[in-house]
UniProtKB/TrEMBL annotation:
One Pfam match: DUF1295
Cellular component per GO, a single term: membrane
Name by which UniProt lists this protein: DUF1295 domain-containing protein
InterPro entries hit by this protein: UstE-like (IPR010721)
Domain of life: Bacteria
Keywords recorded for this protein, A-Z: Membrane, Transmembrane, Transmembrane helix
Stretches that traverse the bilayer: 19-38, 44-63, 93-114, 176-206
Length: 247
């Protein structure tokens, strides 16, 4: 995160912190694997799952933001900053996200020291992780194709996975981190230490900085109220006919 901050100061744009978010998880996984000295299947599996997820996410955000200026969210935040913009960004964005990376990656850290031997929980966790990664990757691809069509400018994306849930990428994140937790839970100690990670990630995605803030930003757009009425707010399900869908 400090390296990302240095790049942000040099370029005058702090949107790169979102790229660093995924890459930081990959760095934690690789560092943990190296420091634990573990050569077993659980530690290796946790490392692979985390690195694949983090690199895909960071790469997608970097590709999506190419050629753009500062992210409007950070621009609004830093324009209200008391004092130096960069110092405020360091405290409120980079260091905060660094702390969150450490907290959310607890299953990766604890699981590397759990007894080796992959059982049914690890299999279930891997399947859940794969489900989440698929939702994220497919949802991001569908949204990118939709936005690339100039005739759809200003319209609400309601096709593919986006017709089953308003947030396929957030639902994917939810599955990824509960899956990684299940893989890490090779002992009750590892599970007890790291269960805070998927619980906290679930809160962020559904009631924190994820779904809640994005929907507040979207609610004034034409057609969004109708889309919200027929489409699940988080867990996928077939679109409803007519109004009355719950969140």
């Amino acid at each position: 995160m400090l390296a990302a901050f240095a790049v942000g100061v040099r370029t005058g744009r702090h949107r790169g912190v979102d790229v660093a978010w995924g890459l930081a998880f990959a760095a934690v996984a690789l560092a943990t694997y190296g420091m634990s000295g573990a050569g077993g299947g659980r530690a290796l599996l946790l490392t692979v799952l985390t690195v694949v997820w983090g690199v895909r996410l960071g790469g997608h955000i970097a590709w999506r933001g190419r050629g753009h200026g500062e992210d409007p969210r950070y621009d609004r935040m830093l324009n209200r900053a008391p004092g130096n913009r960069n110092a405020y960004a360091l405290r409120k964005v980079y260091l905060l996200q660094g702390a969150l990376v450490w907290l959310v990656s607890l299953p990766v850290q604890a699981g590397a020291y759990a007894p080796d031997g992959l059982g049914p929980l690890a299999v279930a966790g891997t399947v859940l992780w794969l489900t989440g990664l698929t939702f994220e990757a497919v949802g991001d691809h569908q949204l990118a194709r939709f936005k690339a069509d100039p005739s759809r400018r200003g319209r609400i994306m309601d096709r593919g996975l986006w017709s089953w849930t308003r947030h396929p990428n957030y639902f994917g994140d939810f599955c990824v981190w509960w899956g990684i937790f299940l893989v890490a839970a090779g002992s009750w100690e590892a599970a007890a230490v790291s269960v805070v990670s998927p619980l906290f990630m679930s809160y962020l995605l559904t009631a924190g900085s994820g779904k809640r803030l994005l929907e507040r930003h979207m609610e004034g757009r034409p057609g969004y109220a109708e889309y919200r009425a027929r489409t699940s707010g988080f867990f996928p399900r077939p679109p409803r006919r007519g109004a009355g869908a719950s969140d």
